[in-house]
Amino acid sequence: MLSPKYFLYLATGAGLQPRIEMSSNPRVDAFYLNQLGYQEMQILRPPQPIWIVEILLRNLQTNANILFPAKFLKLASSLLQEYLPHLKYTMQRHTIHELRFPEFDPPELEKLFWGRLLLGTEVPELLRVNGIELPWDAEDWLQYQYLQSTLERTAAVSIDILGIPFCRRCGESKAIMEDNCMFCGSRHCLTCTNCQTMGLAKSCIPLYFQSFPPSSTASETLKPPKTPIQPQLDFELTPPQKRAAAAIVDFLASEQRQFLVWAACGAGKTEVSYGAIAKTLSENAKVLFAIPRKDVVVELLPRIQHAFPEIEIVALYGGGGERFQDAPLTLATTHQCLRFYQSFDLVILDEADAYPYDGSAMLHYAVNRALRPGGHMIIMTATPGKSLIQKTRSGTLPYVSIPARYHRKPLIVPQISKLKTRSGTNPISSWAPPALIQQFLLGCHQDSRRALIFLPTLKSIAEYGSALIKWAVARDIPGAIIHSKTAAHEDAKSNLLQNKLCFLVTSTILERGITIPNLDVLVLEADNEKVFDSQTLIQIAGRVGRLGETGRVIFVAEHPSYSMKEALKIIRDMNREGFELGYLDSQE
Ligand SMILES: [Zn+2]
Ligand SMILES: [Zn+2]
Question: Could you give all domains of the chain from N- to C-terminal order, each with its CATH number?
Fold first, then answer.
């Protein structure tokens, strides 16, 4: 249903302001313009890919001189020379009467696009999912809406006024490739490689989008709630959680746009947002709960369904979910946010520090764009990055902490041990664990405790991990290695949980999302700041003592890094705050 080329035209009519427009099918425009009293169209030929016609249109619409057909052709042709120097252009005059569709009756599609941002290639699925039978000319319907200004349309990839290519879907300006395109026939078609896993954004493919109209509420597209919504919880929030939940609800009534919930690892932040979700839904507004990782979306869905049994919820994630359903409450990976445009009144971003959201300009762009103007965003994390911390310190980002876990025991403060994992120039084949590591493992084994030993790289895991396992097995201490390239992660984790293994040697894949009772943690080469930044170290330390039991966290490095010291400081500050607020029985 996609047109590879678009027409540029000038429409005239007695007593009417001449109108310059672009179209995938001028017959649709003729039908529309006929209703407004226009009589003629001067159409520039041959048609060109959308991004070129769009640039022409932008230039011509601001130029008052082109309102005469001859000038229109002259100026349009001279602008086109820049992009297609060898092509000849002609202008054909048509009466609207001869061109127009005699009948044209598109279905009411306007509301389907509210709050969405979709590639032309994604529109058929949107229509199908919403029960609309697809004719061959669905693009004509979209052209009609575009003319009525009820749907915005641009090329998905274009160039800015400096001639720099950029992707309108994901904001990328570097990873844009120029190629010979089979679809539009151009040898200079631009494709964005940054967001290609979500479908190809190209300069010859339109991007359709429409914000949720400012005066509209969710009830215009969705069933309104019957009564004020109350979240169902099977347990009572802890005092610090209650404080945070109240602060979030207060924030919704404020002029502030962003709010940070800064929780100690394992203090439980998800549930504190339920009150704000319920309040927003009760006001007939839409909520997005966005999370970087797909596995967390899948895991969270039943919990949120349980808390809001009466509310329709859609879950969106790669390879599953209901891509084009609409619901008052949407659960989505941050990648899926690329398909929304000013849609939600409340956006909750959970695990804001997690891969792949952290460090991805594209995903930040997408999550922010999903929020309606004037909407509220709540960022939740156990380990905010430097810029968020800076904003809280300067007072530009309001926040609340959840500085204590339910059991009132403080976070385990890591010890720093100055030690080189490998000393001298001995070959790795003759490496034996230093005394500290030996004692650590022997201690875990004796006391029937579990251990995670973190190493920064696959190379270091291969070198030291195997030697460690060999050393331990000789002493009847069973261990295993898991990292991103090993299979059977779940088996290794469950063996550890069932005490079949005493320890795992691992990479940062186990830094979050796992609770193991009676756990001790050792981080070797902890001064490798490329891997072990302060956020990662806090997450790793946060694996220990989650159920209120004691535990040890040891950061081992020859030269303690800034990140190691920063992690200690943040953990201590959190404990101090929890103690001062009366949420902890002791400070350390
Ligand atoms: Zn193309
Ligand atoms: Zn892109």
Answer: 6-99 (no CATH), 110-210 (no CATH), 229-402 (3.40.50.300), 415-580 (3.40.50.300)
